[in-house]
Structures are given as structure tokens and as C-alpha cells.
Amino acid sequence: MRSDPDAIFDQFPALETARLTLRQIRPSDAPALFAIFSDPDVTRYYDQPAFTELAQAEGLAARMPQRFADRRTIRWGITRSTDDHLIGTCGYAEWKRHFRCAAVGYELAQSEWRQGIMTEALTAVLTFGFTRMHLNRVEAYVMTGNDASMRLLQKLGFQEEGLLRQYGYWQNAYHDLHLFALLKRDFSALQDFVKPA
Ligand SMILES: CC(C)(COP(=O)(O)OP(=O)(O)OC[C@H]1O[C@@H](n2cnc3c(N)ncnc32)[C@H](O)[C@@H]1OP(=O)(O)O)[C@@H](O)C(=O)NCCC(=O)NCCS
Prior knowledge:
The chain has about 200 residues and is α+β, with helices and mostly antiparallel strands. It is about 30% helix and about 30% strand.
């Protein structure tokens, strides 16, 4: 297996956790993506309103794997190991290779909230990022009020570094975004994962 970060694009790296399988997103996931993204509670803090048409989800189901095929970045579909049905997605929205830095993004169907699913999925995604992608820093941008997302990040060891004033612009308004970041040296799951030989 090649060890340079770009080798991750040679074959889609499915990830397994105790309860979950993180796999490539496929066109057939469009209805499940529509169910997730048409819920205004899921998209409340997003730069786009809730989906109203299946075609929007079909576009997303095509774009997400295309970014992987273009060797730009990676987004996993989250399923329970017992079931191939997509319940969420997570991955790296932006990868600045020369800085060894990427931004993480994630969302989960509301029916699955508060069961530790995203903590479990992101632990695998972060472990993958800090090892296979050679990341040193993972960032997250969170809108004021998105307490679930902020607490999730803090639970994973992210630190809030500041408020990016009017950093986002969507729906005719500027939005302040909280910058969170996790450094490789501070990611405790990694210490368990990479045991000295
Ligand atoms: C943010 C989100 C992914 C959390 O997923 P989740 O699987 O429910 O999160 P977890 O169950 O792993 O919870 C992790 C921690 O976050 C906190 N948390 C999660 N949901 C919360 C909520 N609704 N209110 C307050 N705290 C919450 C808890 O502290 C929890 O830890 P604990 O259960 O040990 O106390 C989910 O709420 C979601 O999809 N939101 C909409 C999309 C979104 O906003 N994405 C992020 C954009 S920046």
C-alpha cells in the first residue's frame, strides 16, 4: 500500500466502527439524502435551505463521489453495520495538502441524533485523517446557536479558537462562524490507535 496521502484516492476507503459502516455514497442513496436534507432542523445552520426536490439530493449523490474521483476530498456515507441504508454523511470538505490541514463536515438524520453516532463516525474519520491523509490539523466552522455541533466537537477534543466575523454569506446575510480545530497531538483516540511497536 502506498503511504503518500494521495494514495487514499486509489480505492475508496470504507471504514468500520463498532456499530457503523462508512462507505462510498452512490446515486441510489439520493432518496435517503433527500430525507436527511429536506429536514429544516438538519439544515438550520447550513449555507443552504432544506431541499424541496429529489433532484437536489440526486445532484448531491453525484457530486460527493465526484470530488473523490477528482482526487480532491472525501465524504463518507454513514450506515449502521446491520443495514445499508444511509443515515448521514461526514468527511473532509476542504483539504489544504501543503498545510496538512482539512475542514470536517457532517450531518445525521434527526431520528438518529443523541445516540453517539457522530462521535463514533468522526472518531474513525479523524483517525483516518491523522494517519492515512497525514493531517496535522482538522478544522470545523460552526454557526452560533449550533450547540449540538459545538459539543460534539468539544467531546472529540476540538478547541474553539475564535469567532470568524461575517465569514459566511448566504441567504442575503453575513454569518459569524466559530472556528474549532483539533491538532493531531491532542487527538486522544489516536494515542490508543497508534500503539508503539
Ligand atoms: C451535530 C450532529 C451531527 C450531532 O450528531 P449526534 O450523533 O447526535 O451526536 P452525538 O450523539 O455523538 O453527541 C455528541 C455530543 O454532542 C452533544 N449533543 C449532541 N446533540 C445535542 C443536542 N441536540 N443538544 C445539546 N447537545 C448535544 C452531547 O454533549 C453529546 O455528548 P453526550 O451524549 O456524551 O452528552 C447532529 O445534531 C446533526 O446532524 N445536526 C444537524 C447538522 C449539523 O448541524 N451539522 C454540523 C454543521 S457545523
